[in-house]
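Case study.
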Amino acid sequence: MTKPTQADARRNRDLLLAAAREAFAEQGTEASLREVARRAGVGIGTLYRHFPTRDALLEALLDSNFQHLRARAASLLAAPDLAPHEALSAWLAEMTTGARTYTGLPESIMAALADEGSALHESCAAMRASAGELLVRAQNTGRVRSDVTVYEVIALALGLAWAAQQPGGTSDLVDRLLSTAMHGLTVAG
Amino acid sequence: MTKPTQADARRNRDLLLAAAREAFAEQGTEASLREVARRAGVGIGTLYRHFPTRDALLEALLDSNFQHLRARAASLLAAPDLAPHEALSAWLAEMTTGARTYTGLPESIMAALADEGSALHESCAAMRASAGELLVRAQNTGRVRSDVTVYEVIALALGLAWAAQQPGGTSDLVDRLLSTAMHGLTVAG
DNA sequence: ACCTGAACACCGTTCAAGT
DNA sequence: ACCTGAACACCGTTCAAGT
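After joint prediction, the assembly is written out as follows.
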C-alpha cells in the first residue's frame, strides 16, 4: 500500500456521503455511523476524520437543501403577485418537505437550533431567518396573527413534519396538518 | 440466601417502577434499561422478567395517566355548560400535558398506536377513542371542521407536544401552539 | 497527511445456573 | 417461582501504529 493521496481523501469523503445518504434514508438520522463507514468501505476512523460529529455529516449532506430553501425564500419575497401569507405558507410546505428527507431530521434541526456548537447550527439559524422575513412581512399585511413568533412557526411546522414521519402517518398528512395550522395562524378576511 | 418469595417479587416490581420513573424523568423514555435495573438494585434479568419490553414498563408507569384521561373525557362529554369544541380543546390540553411527562413519550405513543403488538397499544387506542368521541360531537355542532380525522387531531396534538419538549422549547409553547391549532380546526362563528 | 482497527466503555436481550 | 449475571452482538468515540 502506498501513502494515501489528497485524491484518495476526496474520494473517501464522497464515498462516505453516498453511504450516509443511503443509511440515513433507510434508518433515519440515528443510523449507526459504523454502518455508514462499512457501506463506504472505509475504516471508522476515516469517517471521524472527515466528519467529527454526526451533525457535520448531516450538514454536508443537507447543504444543497438549505441553499435551496434560502433561494426559495428570496424568490417568494420578490414575487409580486403572491400574497405574503401565501408565500409563507408555500415556503413552510417546502421546508417541511425538506425536513422529512430523513426520519429524525426534524429532531436534529430543533436540537441544532438550540445548540450553537452544532455543525448544523448556522444552516438552521439561516433557515429560521428566512422564516422570520416571510413571517414579519405576512404579519405586516394584517393577515397573519401578530403575536406569533418565528420560533413558534418553526416549532409548529417541524412538529407536524415529525408527526407525519412517525409510523402510521400517511403521505398527505403534513399537507393537511399544515393547511390546518396555516388557517390557525391567519386572521379571518 | 433463601428462596425469593412472592412478596420479594412484588417488591422488586415496585422498586423497578420507581427507578424507571426517575430514570425516564431525567433521560426520557429511551433511558438505559440497565440503568433502571441498577437504580432499582436488581439484576437486569429481573427487569426483563417483570417487564418484557420497554413499552410494558411504560404502560405500567402510565396506567393512572391513561385512566385519568378516560375519566376526563367522560366528564367533559357530560358537562352541560361546556361548548363541545371547548371540551375537545380542554381534553387535548390535558392529553398533551400527559404526553410531555417524559421526553420521547409522544414518539412512544405514536409508535404504539401503529403497532398492535405493543404493550402500550390498548391504552393508546382507548385514548384515541376518547379523542374521537369529543371530536365527532364538536363536529356535529358545526363549530369544528368536518373533514378532520381523529388521527389528524392526535398527530397534531402529539406533534406540538413533541416540539415543546425539544431543547429550546419554553414551557408555555404547547399552550400557545395548541391554541393556534384549535383556531385552525374551528370554523369562524 | 491520511487511513486503519484495536481498545474502551457502554447498550439491549437472552438464558444457564443458582436459591 | 424467582433472581442473577455472564455471554453475545452490537454501539460511539479515541488514538497508537502504520503508509
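Observations recorded in class. The CA atoms of residues 5 and 11 of chain B lie 10 Å apart. Residues 1, 3-6, 8-9, 12, 42-46, 49 of chain B lie near DNA strand D (CB under 10 Å from a C1'). We will return to this complex in the next lecture.
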